[in-house]
Each structure stands twice: as C-alpha cells, then as structure tokens.
Specification:
By secondary structure, this protein is α/β, with parallel strands linked by helices. The chain has a single domain, classed as 3-Layer(aba) Sandwich (Rossmann fold).
C-alpha cells in the first residue's frame, strides 16, 4: 500500500491509536516511520530530526521501540532471553516479561512459543527498548494475539510507558484509552477524535 498526503504531527508524550480497514496502509505508515520502507517523497521526522544518512536511520531505529504485527521467529534457534537482550536494557525487559507472564519462558527458542507468548516477549522487548532510551513506541496490533486478560495487561503496560506512542489497533478498548484516534483509509489519514 502506498501512502499519500499523510500528515500527522504527534506531540511528545501523546498516545495515538491508528485504526482502519485491513490493507489501508497502517502498517506501512509505521514501517515508514521506522525507516523500513524506502521513502519516495515527503519528509519523516522523529524528535524533530529528519533522517537521510544510514547513521541517522540507525539512530532513528534506536529511538523507536517496535512491536511488529507478526513477530518473526527466524530460522535459527533464537532464545527468548536473547530477543529480550536485544532491547538494550535486559533487566527492564526481563522484568516486563515477568509482569506479562512469560518470564519463565526465557530459555525457550522463540519458534517454540505460542503466538500470544511470542507477542508478550516482543512487548517486553519494547519495554526494554524504552528503558534503553527509546522515546517513541510504534506498535502494530500489539494486543491481537492475546487473550482478553492479556489484552488488558498489555494495554496497561504500553500506556504506562513514558513515551510518545503510535499504536495500530482494531482493539476498541485500547483505542479508547489513547489521547487521539486517527483512521487510515486507502493510504490517507483522517481524524476520528
């Protein structure tokens, strides 16, 4: 999905829910902000900085905690503790894993975890990224693979973080707790509230 005429200013500390139909460009927008998509036109700034060089793009990725929609397990035996350690703040990530009920799974390969367990490990990793200095949280369907109790726990944890957050979600309860809701439709944004 190509994005066009997307203009979104997010105030420091603001939490925005990004909603919309499947295939409307929500994930593409998050990935563009993260620098995972080649930018054809326009400007993307994070923390007031534009990113043109490889070093600047690497800095942007460190400034953004990322929870992917479909967490990758990879083709090699990555352990959950290694994924948590990649956050930059292993202690904080391990504490979050305990809070999310997956701390006892840290010695298991990530490809042996259920979808919900893996989602919780990625959420804990994002918390560790914030502990390591990330000021922006980009989360793509962070509660989708979780049971009802897990959705509430994850929402509580994510919304308690001292960050600016852009959360792609179809979870009405999570969207309702955000400061603002915007909707993506055919690659463009419109405010909902």
């Amino acid at each position: 999905m190509a994005l066009h005429r997307v203009h979104l200013n997010v105030a420091p500390g603001e939490r925005i829910a990004l909603t919309g139909t499947n295939g409307s460009g929500k994930s593409t927008l998050l990935r563009a902000v993260l620098g995972l998509h080649r930018q054809a036109a326009g400007r993307i700034t994070v923390g007031g900085r534009e990113f043109t060089t490889a070093a600047e793009r690497a800095w942007r990725r460190r400034m953004c905690a990322w929870v992917p929609q479909r967490p990758a397990t990879g083709r090699f035996p990555l352990l959950a503790r290694e994924l948590l350690a990649s956050s930059g703040d292993t202690t904080t990530a391990r504490r979050a894993a305990d809070t999310l009920g997956v701390g006892h799974l840290v010695d298991r390969p990530v490809d042996s975890l259920s979808g919900g367990q893996l989602q919780r490990v990625y959420l804990a990793r994002a918390v560790g990224c914030v502990g390591a200095g990330a000021g922006v949280l980009l989360a793509d369907e962070p509660t989708a693979a979780l049971d009802f109790d897990g959705q509430g726990e994850a929402a509580d944890l994510l919304l308690s973080l001292p960050v600016t957050a852009l959360l792609v979600t179809h979870d009405r309860a999570l969207a309702g707790r955000c400061d603002r809701v915007v909707e993506m439709a055919a690659g463009t944004l419109r405010p909902v509230r």
